[in-house]
Amino acid sequence: MPTEPARWLAMDVAARRVFRLSLTVALTLAAAYAIPLEMPFLAPIFAFMLAAAPKPPMGVKGMLGLMLVLTLTLGVGLLLLPVLMHYPLTGLLLVFVGLFVTNFLSINLGKGAAATLLTAGITMITAAGTVSYVVASSIIDAMVLGVALAVVCHWLVYPLFPEDSAATPVPEPAVDVVESNWLALRATLIVFPSFLLVLVNPAAYMPIVMKAVSLGQQTSILDARHAGKELLGSTLLAGLFAVVLWFGLSIAPNLWMFFLWTLLLGIFLAGKFYGVLATRYPPSFWQNVLVTMLILLGPAVEDSASGKDVYKAFAVRMGLFLLVTLYAWMALIFLEWLRARSSNRALGALEVG
């Protein structure tokens, strides 16, 4: 008769991944609000990025290395501030190049989590710095500490739901350099205009940066035909889940219930993400649902704590998210049409020649 630990480890590996991811995200959220961190809703998003891959968590050396690289890279955003303030066009071009490099790292080199962190950092730090150097510095601290907290929570949860050591790693698909460079440029062209919008009012539009970064990563794996259903559908569904969690939290507004509700919805969404629960949509759809839900909930909690009208602010924020999503969809269609037209012209010129 198998012992209890053996039964626990005999759980299907996909189910273990669901519980590991959802518990890591919920635990990171609870810890971030308990400390509390600046912009605590960022920490569970980082936890999702780091824990979604089916592999053991990074070690202490890896965590310290990531924190150091993140600090140095985000510091570049502070260095860009004088250029952006005194030479706006040059500063904006440097931000554009930085976004392309981070998307290149994600698509060409497979560094998705690190690239997303760097993309968010470049845009958020630079935008916040136009308001106050102190605010930008505090966001850097929040991001670095949020990443460290996410790694620690991953350490705590992983022994409960370990990965199958006998599983063979899935080989990375071959990278088409020309295609991947185009995808990196396409993602940059989708994120950059949202960054320009945030510069108008960084304090009010800061959550849009994270949404735009999420969309930029998502559109790198989408084709124009299916983009509308996936981008708009996942954003609307994220808003619905955020409302459900908010009303559930209103029954007993405390951190313990916030943790439990996040865990409950996280199990459902992670089940869809890993394919344990039947779904017609790809993992990127459910990733966008979870990330967008967390982005919507974080500012709502802060609005409630400061006495603002939560429902009005949520409606405005949701409307902006939908506008950014519509832009991403239209930009994707236009850029693909432009590329196809250029290709047809080049083929026509070759045939004539």
Rg to the nearest angstrom?
21 Å
Main sheet makeup: none
Overall residue-averaged pLDDT value: 81
Number of H/I helices: 13
What is the topological layout?
Elements: H1 4-9, H2 13-34, H3 42-51, H4 60-86, H5 88-108, H6 112-129, H7 133-157, H8 177-200, H9 202-219, H10 224-251, H11 255-273, H12 283-305, H13 310-352
Helix pairs in contact: 2-3, 2-7, 2-11, 3-7, 3-12, 4-5, 4-6, 4-7, 5-6, 5-8, 6-7, 6-9, 8-9, 8-13, 9-12, 9-13, 10-11, 10-12, 10-13, 11-12, 12-13
Summarize the structure.
With 353 residues, the protein is mostly helical.
Structural account:
The chain has 353 residues and is mostly helical. The protein is built from 13 helices and no strands. The termini are far apart. The relative contact order is 0.13.
List the keywords.
80% helix, mainly alpha, 0% strand, single chain, 353 residues
